[in-house]
Write a structure and sequence with these properties.
The complex is a heterotrimer of chains A (178), B (237) and C (234). Chain A has helices at residues 5-11, 17-25, 29-50, 54-71, 82-100, 106-109, 122-128, 135-143, 148-155, 159-177. Chain A is mainly alpha-helical and 178 residues long. Chain B is globular. Chain B folds into two domains: 1-96 and 175-237, P-loop containing nucleotide triphosphate hydrolases (Rossmann fold), CATH 3.40.50.300; 101-174, 3-Layer(aba) Sandwich (Rossmann fold). Helix content of chain B is 35%, strand content 27%. The chains are: A mainly alpha (178), B alpha/beta (237), C mainly alpha (234).
């Protein structure tokens, strides 16, 4: 089946992400398709690093763009990345999915660990100082801005474990900085 | 699923006193089959047989080698024992079937998307609601009606309603597609769109199209043509 | 790296666009979903009242009229008897209107679909029955009080509906509805005349007979379900 969107994406190429989101807020369906073509692949790849179940990832991506359609008006162009905004929504939608279904063992939901953030950034330095088992918790809470409860769902571990690992991470970092 | 072959053997359908459709032996599919004939020649009756809407009064119909209809023959006691197998084959055939009747099959009060979705529910498409509705959306895109999903069918033009019914038949990519005059009340653009859609699908489906328009049927490049005359197959090649 | 990523990306976009383009689900359908009715069933059921809304409104008007405008010279039992006689006809008329080629343009399409014809008929009948029962209840509650007799239409309504379906699977729903509707009315009038009691058909024996007829008709319907799978255009 032919898609009309291919040509539209090209036409839309010069528009900034923020302008596309603004167009979505006015009810422009084609703009939503444009945003999807720009970001959905990346979101799926990143969600897959957090969750190995394709069905949950698919639903999370669908929910993300449906949420964008309904709430594009609440996006404030403060110079922040649209990609980061989408990622926050996508992660929350994935957590909603995980909450709905009892997660299988954590190892099954983490097919491959997410690579460290780009070298030279603060995030890279921060995670580099920590033992590997603390990475996921720190990434979820400090970099993705999740609550400890959300991180527990995402990682498939008890909330208490998230808190104790966070405490350990903090003490490691404090020692490092001393 | 591959395109099924449909075989009719000694099939007779009697409609009242006046009309009888009799098909000695006919094999349809894979690819596009065009059915032609004057009004009252039995085109629609043949298509309704293939769409499992009308049961034959005599004879046997098989789809992909399995019997889906065998008229009860009083002398043949084995027919009764086969009933569960025939029922299962009929169900399997309907799962792969998309059917566009000749008459207007679109209820005026329903919205465009809802009608196609309702047919999709009855056709048991999709593993869940979202994937079913995605198929409905794709079908509406295929007939160029996705912008009118929320419109009531009663407010559409004849050509648009025809395309709604067409979308209901095309949704989910059925491997057996029975279309009774799909070109009726379509404009030239839409007929071109339909031609591309059908030829694109012809490699993986058995498509039976009844039409009055010889010129259009040529552009479909059918693998087979059936000419009906007064309830009999005059020519099949 | 991720298998079928392109296909899944295309599919997910279709899902998103479908949800955006689709008209919002109606109130009745959302109510059914909240009551944990499976989504496909809710769709099937919700579409029936959409098609029949005009009919429901007219039935409501008729019943309220019958309830309020009874002849002043009738006694209460007489007025109630009229309502009780009308009430079992409501679902019969509903079934007649909800089925058959004339009523449902998509009838042929539904026959060609794998969804069981029996299941579709029962689902739609249950919808018609539920809606008409609710309307009838309103009409009867507005009627002069006569104790339990006000609910005495329930079993007769089940009997007339089941009989219509059973006969309809052989003769067509409209013919069946005509036969059952006429038969029911004649029966009630004859019994009432013969016994000199307008409510006679609705007392204990009548209820028992209704129950038996309902069960017999239901059995007949289920055993003849194959007839519902092939549409007979003749």
């Amino acid at each position: 089946m032919r898609r009309r969107t291919d040509t539209l994406v090209r036409v839309d190429q010069e528009r900034s992400d923020a302008a596309v989101v603004a167009a979505i807020a006015t009810g422009d369906r084609r703009a939503l398709e444009t945003l999807y073509h720009r970001h959905a692949r990346m979101l799926m790849v990143r969600l897959h690093r957090r969750c190995g179940d394709p069905e949950l990832v698919d639903t999370a991506v669908q929910d993300t763009f449906l949420a964008v359609w309904r709430s594009a008006g609440t996006y404030r162009d403060t110079g922040g990345e649209v990609g980061a905004w989408l990622w926050t929504i996508a992660l929350r939608k994935l957590i909603d999915q995980l909450r709905r279904r009892p997660a299988p063992s954590p190892s099954a939901t983490l097919p491959e660990p997410e690579p460290l953030p780009a070298p030279g950034t603060r995030a890279h330095d921060l995670l580099g100082r920590l033992p590997a088992e603390l990475h996921d918790v720190v990434r979820s809470v400090y970099l993705d801005g999740l609550t400890t409860a959300e991180a527990a769902v995402l990682l498939g571990i008890p909330q208490g474990t998230v808190k104790s690992r966070l405490a350990r991470a903090r003490s490691v970092l404090q020692e490092d900085l001393r | 699923m591959t395109a099924p072959t449909v075989h009719l053997d000694g099939v007779v359908v009697r409609l009242g006193e006046r009309f009888t459709l009799a098909v000695d032996s006919l094999t349809v599919g894979p690819g596009i089959t065009v059915v032609q004939g004057a009004n009252g020649s039995g085109k629609s009756t043949l298509l309704r047989l293939l769409a499992t809407v009308v049961a034959p009064d005599a004879g046997r119909i098989t789809v992909a080698g399995r019997t889906i209809a065998a008229a009860a023959d009083p002398a043949d006691r084995s027919g009764r024992a086969d009933r569960p197998a025939v029922d299962a084959a009929l169900l399997a055939t309907r799962r792969r079937l998309g059917y566009l009747p000749q008459h207007d099959s679109v209820p005026p009060r329903l919205r465009v998307f809802d009608h196609v979705d309702l047919v999709a529910v009855m056709r048991e498409l999709g593993s869940d609601a979202r994937s079913r509705r995605a198929m409905v959306h794709r079908a509406l895109v295929a007939v160029d009606l996705d912008d009118l999903g929320a419109e009531r069918c009663g407010r559409l033009s004849g050509g648009q309603r025809r395309r709604v019914a067409l979308a209901a038949a095309l949704a989910g990519g059925p491997t057996l597609l029975v279309l009774d005059e799909p070109d009726a009340s379509l404009d030239a653009d839409q007929i071109g769109r339909l031609t591309r859609e059908l030829t694109e699908r012809a490699g993986a489906a058995t498509i039976v199209v009844a039409t009055h328009h010889a010129a259009w049927s040529t552009t479909l490049h059918p693998t087979q043509r059936i000419q009906l005359h007064e309830g009999h197959v005059r020519r099949a090649d | 790296m991720i298998p079928d990523l392109d296909a899944r990306l295309a599919h997910n976009l279709d899902v998103v666009m479908a949800e955006i383009d689709a008209p919002p689900r109606g109130r009745f359908e959302r109510l059914l979903l909240r009551a944990r009715v499976p989504e496909p069933t809710a769709r099937l059921v919700a579409a029936t009242p959409t098609l029949r809304l005009a009919w429901f409104v007219s039935v409501a008007v008729v019943l309220l009229f019958a309830a309020s405008a009874g002849d002043a010279t009738w006694d209460d039992t007489g007025r109630l008897a009229v309502l009780l006689t009308l009430a079992p006809l409501v679902p019969v008329v509903g079934v007649a209107l909800a089925y058959g080629s004339g009523a449902d343009r998509a009838h042929e399409v539904s026959v060609a679909a794998p969804l069981s014809g029996l299941r579709l008929v029962l689902l739609r009948t249950a919808t018609v029955l539920g809606a008409s029962a609710a309307l009838t209840l309103l009409g009867v509650l507005a009627a002069p009080s006569a104790g339990w007799l006000r609910l005495a239409w329930l079993l007769p309504a089940a009997a007339t509906t089941a009989t219509t379906l059973a006969v309809g699977s052989r003769l067509g729903m409209r013919t069946a509805a005509g036969l059952v509707g006429t038969g029911w009315t004649v029966l009630v009038v004859v019994i009432a005349q013969a016994s000199g009691d307008a409510a006679a058909p609705f007392r204990a024996i009548g209820q028992l007979v209704s129950l038996v007829v309902s069960v017999l008709a239901a059995v007949a319907l289920v055993t003849s379900r194959r007839r519902l799978e092939h549409w007979d255009g003749r």
